[in-house]
């Protein structure tokens, strides 16, 4: 059994090394890039959290490639989503400790691959990807669900709050509320989990975000957007209970 596990680990290391080399020398067509990223997704998803030292070395070129501008800012939405998912997986594997701060993130990426990476680039990538996936079917949507699932694990929510990315948090809430009525109950549940965790992890919420919840929670919107309205009401109630007991009027207006 041990030799089988060892053989499996060696095989993953070899595959990781090869895919890292491929990513560092990107093919020209989006289709080939996506194919390479899909292989990367598969390999990363099979690596355990707190991977062995022997696995970290071949992981470094993958990290370096993923945070390079060519991929992080690629114009193709499928590429964006795949990169976001791969970075989610890498953060899971590396098991960063909370609380997260600017210096820790920069130092971690620098130690991993010799490159500095602005943490907000990753969250900008994720939020932009959420915003651009308009259809609730197809390959893009399926990939986006994987990112949503990874994002709802909690680590990334805590990270966003620790790093005080208020503008991106507002955009994330706005997007989730916008698509709630056209999404499955399972997807809405994950979105609700993410937004609830953000509220509970925050010391306070931006006024713009509170207003967004209040507007979407108004009863006169319930016929046109029933899921969105109910979701906004629940979140506003959590906000009132958790952070601001002085807004009963806003909550009752949304009831």
TrEMBL record:
GO terms for cellular component: nucleus. It comes from the Eukaryota. Keywords: DNA damage, DNA repair, Nucleus. One of its GO terms (biological process) is DNA repair. Its main location: nucleus. InterPro entries: Pds5. It is found in: Nucleus. PANTHER family: ANDROGEN INDUCED INHIBITOR OF PROLIFERATION AS3 / PDS5-RELATED, PHOSPHOLIPASE-LIKE PROTEIN-RELATED. This is Phospholipase-like protein.
